[in-house]
Structures are given as C-alpha cells and as structure tokens.
Amino acid sequence: MTSASDSSDTAVPPPADNYLSMVLLIDDQVMVCEAVRRALANQSDLDFHYCTEPLDALRVAQEVKPTVILQDLVMPGVDGLDLVRQYRAQEATHTVPVIVLSTKDDPATKSAAFQAGANDYLVKLPDRIELIARIRYHTRAYLDHLQRDQAYRALRESQRELMRANIELERLTRIDGLTGLGNRRYFDEYIAAEWKRALRSGSPISVLMIDVDNFKRYNDAYGHLAGDEVLKQVAHVLKDGVIRSSDLAARFGGEEFVVILNDVTAAGAHQVAERLLREVHALDIQHGTERLTVSIGVATTTPEADGMPDELINAADLALFRAKAAGRDRIVI
Ligand code: GH3
Ligand code: MG
Ligand code: MG
Ligand code: MG
Predict the structure, then answer these.
(1) C-alpha angle 181/183/188, rounded to 5°?
(2) Residue minimizing CA distance to atom 15 of ligand 1
(3) Region class of 180: left (phi > 0), else alpha (psi between -120 and 50), else beta
C-alpha cells in the first residue's frame, strides 16, 4: 500500500453526508489485513473488521453487517469468487457491495469477478486514498439502495392497507348497519346472480318475504330503540336459520326481511318458513298481551329465459299480503 503506511495516521476528511462504512475484509493473510487496518485507521466514518478464515466469511458477514465487503480471491481451500456468489445468494448479504481485492491484475480474472457479482475490483495493495474513496462510494450507494428499498416496502404496505380498506368499504356498502345482514343492494345483486345460475342449471329458487306483524304498534308502545332491538333479534333468527352457504338472508327494508333459498322446492321452502316462524315465536318477545310474530310469504319458481327475478319477488310479496290479510302470524304459499 504505497501511500498507506506513510499517511495512515492522517484522516481523509469524510464527505459531509454522514454515511458510516462498516468494512469487512476477508483475506487469509494477516499481514494484508493489518496493512488495510492501518490504511483505514483514523477515519471517523470507517469501522474495520477482518476475517482470515474464509470458511467463516458468511457467518462473520451476517454478524458484522458490513456496508462493504473487501474480498480476497486466492485463499487455501476456498475460491474467493465462490464466496462472492454465496454473498449474492444469501438474504443478509444479497445486496452488500463487494470489492474484490486481489494480486491478480488480468482482465479475465477481473471480468470473472464482476460476473460472479462483485461491484468493484482493486489490485492489492491499493492506494489508501483510492480505497477510502471507493469504500465511501459503495457505502453511500448501498445505504441509498436500502433506504429506497425500505421506502418502496413502506409504499407497498400502505398500498396494501388501502386495498384492504377499499375491500372493507365495498363490503360495508352491502351490509345493513342495524342488523348486520345483507342489505337491499346486496339482495338485488345476489338474486340476479343466482337467477342466472339457476337458469343454467334448471334448478328452482324460493324466496321468503318476512314482515314483522303490527310493528308500528310495537314502536309506539315500547319506543323506537326497543323496536331496533327486535329487528336485530329477528335478523339473528334468519341468519342462523339460513344454513347453506348458497342461501341468503337480507334486510329488504324497514321491518321486512327476505330469504333466498337455492335449489329448494316449494315444499322445502315451506318447511324452512315454518321453522323460522317457530323460532321467532321462541324469541318470546312481549307485544301487548301477545307475543311478537311475523308473517311469511313464500314463492318458488324455476327460472325461464324470458323471466325476471322481480316476478318471483312480487309473487312472494303477494303471498305475504295474503298472510297479513288472513290474520298474520302465518305462512302463505
Ligand atoms: P303489519 O303487521 O301489517 O306489517 O303492520 P306494521 O305495523 O308492522 O306495518 P307498517 O308498515 O304499518 O309499519 C311498519 C313499521 O316499522 C313502521 C316503521 O316505523 C317501523 N320501522 C321500519 N324500520 C324500522 C327500524 O329500522 N327500526 C324501528 N324501530 N322501526 C322501524
Ligand atoms: Mg489470499
Ligand atoms: Mg309489518
Ligand atoms: Mg312492512
């Protein structure tokens, strides 16, 4: 190191950018290591470690967390270029800059070093001022890269968060806030999709329209908040009562709910309606001198090409109207 030994106690002023270099030298010769140590001494921005056992290089590199690795090529039992390739293959040293430091000065060896993943090449022993300059340059490039990498990851994470929030918002536009059931919008989308599916498969669809009986009177007698609680309880019965994942319970509006049953015949739909009617009874909600009840209108159809889901909904609505007219607390098909 020509200018190294004579000027090693003089600090070369670091650039004003406050990058700290952690230098790790892997070289089997202690003499070389000590010479480089002297060359880098007194630099407030350089921290120096060396390792003369190439078999320990990867482990030491993981511990030291260098910002620059100085790598010898010719070492007993280990090819320096193999080590360079291994730094590149390992997570901890994947992008750490490697300066090859070798006595070899031929273009083929230099070319092979870059091909193996080295970032720079210096012939031993290099000029001290140049070595320091290159170490600083590579440290700055590496730390800038890490910062960009981190900024990039933070950006990606915030994008993912935004996407999650959007998905949640999108989900909430289909949920009824009071009962947690699907809302009218969700119901409309759902029945349109199921209608098409049933059209292809030729299977029947049943719709149950469920309306709380004399609910205006309930609100008047017990208050609107108590009325809200009733709607939640009825919604709970419907949610629990609709077991198959292809079926849907939704709030149609006000105190009116709707259930879609896929691939269920009129007889099957009637059974489900009876069970729901019983379970609302079982809630045992006092309404004046009686229990709170619901009325249910049921309609079933096998979709045809020229039909519309609206006709099925209207049929269920008409059945519900008949159930009300016939005295409430009952099912009409
Ligand atoms: P019927 O047996 O014929 O269905 O009589 P009803 O009183 O239940 O029917 P009507 O349509 O006259 O009244 C429905 C009532 O439902 C009136 C309305 O204030 C109440 N309602 C609608 N939505 C809500 C709600 O979100 N919370 C509460 N507490 N009440 C509601
Ligand atoms: Mg050597
Ligand atoms: Mg009602
Ligand atoms: Mg109503």
Answers:
(1) 125
(2) 216
(3) left
Residue 137 has which token pair? Answer: 């340059």
Q: Which ligand is nearest to the CA of 256?
A: 4
Give the β-pairing of 294-301 and 290-291: unpaired
Please, which residues bridge with residue 25 across strands?
50, 70
Which residue type does 25 have? Answer: L
Please, which residues have CB less than 5 A from ligand 3, an ion? 211-212, 215, 255
Label the pairing between strands 78-79 and 98-102.
unpaired
- Predicted complex ipTM: 0.96
Q: How many CB atoms lie within 10 A of CB 321?
A: 15
Cis check: omega of the bond before 125, within 30 degrees of 0: yes
Q: Are 211 and 324 in contact (CB under 8 A)?
A: yes
Helices (H), 103-214: 107-116, 128-172, 184-201
Provide the residue count of the chain.
Answer: 333
- SS3 of 20, please? coil
List, for residues 41-80, the tens digit of each pLDDT value: 999 899 999 999 999 999 999 999 999 999 999 999 999 9
Report the catalytic residues. 255
Handedness of CA 280, 282, 288, 289 (dihedral sign): positive
Q: Which atom of ligand 1 is nearest to the CA of 228?
A: 29
Q: How does pLDDT run across 199-240, given as a tens digit for each residue?
A: 999 999 999 999 999 999 999 999 999 999 999 999 999 999
Contact between residue 234 and residue 178 where contact means Cβ atoms under 8 Å apart: no
**Type and span of the H or E element at 249:** strand 248-253
Long-range contacts for 108-113 (Cβ within 8 Å, ≥24 apart)? 109/73, 112/81, 113/73, 113/81, 113/84
Give me the torsion for CA of 24, 26, 32, 36, rounded to 10°: -10
Pocket of ligand 1 (CB under 6 A): 178, 211-217, 219, 224, 227-228, 231, 254-255, 324, 328
pTM of the model: 0.65
Query: Which residue carries 């790598």 as its tokens?
Result: 71
